[in-house]
Amino acid sequence: MKKWQLPFLVLLIVGTVLIIRQQQSMPYQKCSGLIFGTTYHVTYQYDDDLHAEVVAKLKEVDAALSMFNEQSTISKINNNEAVKPDKMFLDVFQLAQQISQDTQGAFDITVAPLVNIWGFGFKHGQEPTTHAIDSLRQFVGYQKVSYNGKTIQKQDPRIMLDCSAIAKGYGTDVVARLLDEKGITNYLVEIGGEVVTRGISEKRVPWKIGVTKPTDDTLHVGNDLQTVLNVTDKAMATSGNYRNFYYKGGRKYAHTIDPKTGRPVQHNILSATVLCNQCAKADAYATAFMVMGLDKAREVLERNPDLMVYFIYDDKGVNKVWYSPSLKDKIEQ
Fold first, then answer.
1. End-to-end C-alpha distance for the chain, whole angstroms
2. Alpha carbon distances (Å) from 166 to 66, 170, 237
3. pLDDT at 102 exceeding the cut of 70
4. What share of the chain is helix, strand, coil (3-state, %, to 5)?
5. Residue 196, by phi and psi: left (phi above 0), alpha (psi -120 to 50) or beta?
6. 131 or 171: whose pLDDT is higher?
7. 38-47 pLDDT, tens per residue?
């Protein structure tokens, strides 16, 4: 080493040590609240409190995608009002259409009328008749809506859009992008169980997220874990019927509706967890896999190598697990 290089090497080492010390001493901020009818929790390493900015971003998503907000973009489209879709709505709409095509309609944001008639929209719990189901199916189908560059076009004005199976994931992505823009390298964003992480936790270890055992639990009191996954620098979403169902006439009705049949799904997947680089995508595919079942889901995975999954399924009364080979090194227990 030449003598003139030594001072530069020393400065580099000292600078690196100072940066590491600063990162270790910088506090982890936490904020939480309610959005989209569920809770959110954000943990991030940063000097400033960003809660107000997080809330502002979430309100933007709500203004685009919430069916409970009468002034939202999606509500106006459902009411057939003349409205130019905002960027957030279009981001979600176009991604939803892509995933609908890839899953042959297993994921479909026009399924709302069928979900509602089965009682999960209006909580009446009455089993619909075959005639009622068939009458609504004519208003369901992702191919019946499109974007013409200016507005959302519906083949029938009675078609309703519902982005609830992708909006939480998208909102999680939006908050994660805000933190990325701030240069934050260590954070966890969680909205209603959908997660995006970067870097390490305040315990100086990778972020770890539990996958709940699928047991009938309408009161949401069970917290037994099936496994723990290392989800650092990934997005994760889980869909399952074990907490959203009702019994009537001795039969169990799950909340996931098959858009093609108009009826609750009847197959062996109990819980579908998806990991990838985009939470909105993970959210939508987790729902689609619950509709498709194990065999068809595997076909989708073959053409989407960026998706990693952890399925819990019923095999003649015994819960079993199937997961992507690429997920093996992320399983903690």
1. 48
2. 11, 6, 10
3. yes
4. 35, 25, 40
5. beta
6. 171
7. 999 999 999 9
Both structure tokens of 127:
């089993």
Looking at the predicted structure, is the pLDDT value of residue 310 above 50? yes
> Would you call 242 helix, strand, or coil by DSSP?
coil
Which of these, 131, 136, 127, lies nearest to 246 by C-alpha position?
Answer: 127
Strands 145-147 vs 38-45: parallel, antiparallel or unpaired:
unpaired
Q: For residues 192 and 197, give the distance between their C-alpha atoms in angstroms, rounded to a whole number.
A: 15
Using the Cα atoms of residue 249, residue 250, residue 253 and residue 258 in order, give the sign of their dihedral. negative
What are the start-end ranges of the H helices in the chain?
5-25, 51-65, 73-78, 87-102, 112-117, 130-137, 164-181, 279-292, 294-302
Q: Which two tokens stand for residue 69?
A: 């907000």
**What pLDDT sits at residue 19?**
43
Alpha helices in 103-163 (DSSP H): 112-117, 130-137
pLDDT reported for residue 17: 41
As given in the structure block, the two tokens for residue 58 are 């979430």
- Asked if residues 195 and 237 have their Cβ atoms less than 8 Å apart, the reply is yes
Residue 249 has pLDDT above 80, yes or no: no
Residue with tokens 């917290």: 223
According to DSSP, the β-strands at 235-240 and 225-230 are unpaired
State the average pLDDT over residues 235-259: 67
DSSP character for 85?
P
Closest listed residue to residue 241, CA positions, set 216, 262, 276, 259: 216
Q: What is the mean pLDDT of residues 160-169?
A: 95
Least confident among 12-16, 112-116, 274-278, 283-287: 12-16
Higher pLDDT, 126 or 9: 126
Cβ count near 8 (within 10 Å): 9
